[in-house]
UniProtKB/TrEMBL annotation:
This is Nitroreductase family protein. NCBIfam families: Rv3131_FMN_oxido. InterPro entries: Nitroreductase-like, Nitroreductase/BluB. Coiled coil: none annotated. Residues 310-335 are annotated as: Disordered. Residues 324-335 have a biased composition (Acidic residues). The lineage of its organism: Bacteria, Bacillati, Actinomycetota, Actinomycetes, Pseudonocardiales.
Length: 335
């Protein structure tokens, strides 16, 4: 049951709250927020909330693990920002597969300047579904994104211009396959186009513009038809920076690791003045995900596809109250 938060390790009650709030600022499929936290006297546990899984779009819970990995990266950074070292164990108990990680704040260790910049980016990160400006990116900016993924034992591929048309076709194919699935459409309608005041799902204000017939990219309507149309004749940016984040295998630990890499890339992008949105459909449909894997070389597993650019600010999406996500126990996890 939800309970009043208590100190964990060297963290005060208020510091625990601050760290958990940072964790909840992670992105998730349709803003489903599929995570829970359990606090013991020494440990913060991250659990998958399988009751918030999306079986039509994410039947194997791959994107659920990506989202929880992103929340874990935020939690790690927040603890570093409070002056502690986060001792992390992934999948520590095979008898409890929903327990994804334990995090023990240990010692005293100040965050580095680079970590401090990422911590500052956590509340500024949003999924930006609006058109971006037509701007190019420098070599150092691209290298920073690549290093961010590699820091989490994952990889990032920057799609060269000659591969972008093929990806565009795969996105279109995935979109049409999903739209032909009544289960997917019903699930989509439950989670998107939410009115103001809801604590989850994608609100109309964050849904982006309405898709149009002349769009080069096949776009999803997150607004249930309530979004605004763009200025006549104005399409999305002509040459978006497309990156693929992936893993070296496709088992659950690699997906959780890739979620941490995805979030580090997103925060690095924010730190460099970039915005990002997801091209999720291409990795949600098994057929197009296999084709994408072939496109980028065949030896690695694509987990997330990001569209990056520079754009105007957008509102943040809502979050569930922390009291609904966290519980407290005196029982310590087994070592």
């Amino acid at each position: 049951m939800p309970a009043t938060l208590v100190p964990v390790g060297g963290l005060s009650t208020e510091q625990v709250r601050e760290a958990l709030l940072a964790a909840t600022r992670a992105p998730s499929l349709h803003n489903s927020q599929p995570w829970r936290f359990r606090c013991t006297p020494s440990t913060i546990e991250l659990h998958a909330d399988v009751d918030r899984a999306l079986p039509a779009a994410d039947p194997d819970n791959r994107e659920l693990l990506l989202a929880c990995g992103a929340a874990l990266l935020n939690l790690r950074l927040a603890i570093r920002g409070l002056g502690y070292y986060p001792d992390v164990r992934l999948f520590p108990d095979h008898r409890r597969p929903e327990l994804l990680a334990t995090v023990r704040p240990r010692g005293h260790q100040m965050a580095s300047p680079a970590e401090q910049r990422l911590i500052a980016a956590i509340p500024r990160r949003r999924t930006n579904r609006q058109p971006f400006f037509d701007e190019t990116f420098t070599g150092p900016e691209r290298d920073a994104l690549r290093r961010a993924a590699e820091a989490e034992r994952s990889w990032l591929a920057l799609l060269p211009p000659e591969q972008v048309p093929t990806l565009r076709q795969l996105v279109q194919q995935a979109h049409f396959l999903q739209q032909e699935d009544p289960g997917f459409v019903a699930e989509w309608q439950r989670w998107t186009g939410r009115p103001f005041g809801e604590s989850d799902g994608v609100p109309v204000s964050s849904g982006g513009p309405l898709p149009e017939a002349h769009d080069e990219w096949t776009l999803r309507d997150f607004t249930a038809g309530q979004g605004r149309r763009r200025v006549e004749g104005k399409d999305f940016e002509s040459a978006p920076l497309i990156v693929v984040i992936g893993s070296f295998h496709d088992l659950p630990p690699a997906r959780l690791q890739a979620g941490q890499a995805m979030q580090r890339v997103l925060l690095t992008a924010i730190d460099h003045g970039m915005s990002a949105s997801f091209l999720s459909q291409v990795v949600e449909v098994p057929e197009t995900r296999r084709k994408l894997r072939t496109l980028i070389g065949g030896g690695l597993w694509p987990q997330a596809v990001l569209r990056l650019g520079r754009g105007s600010p957008v509102p943040r999406t809502p979050r569930r109250p922390l009291e609904d996500l966290a519980e407290v126990t005196d029982v310590e996890p087994e070592a």
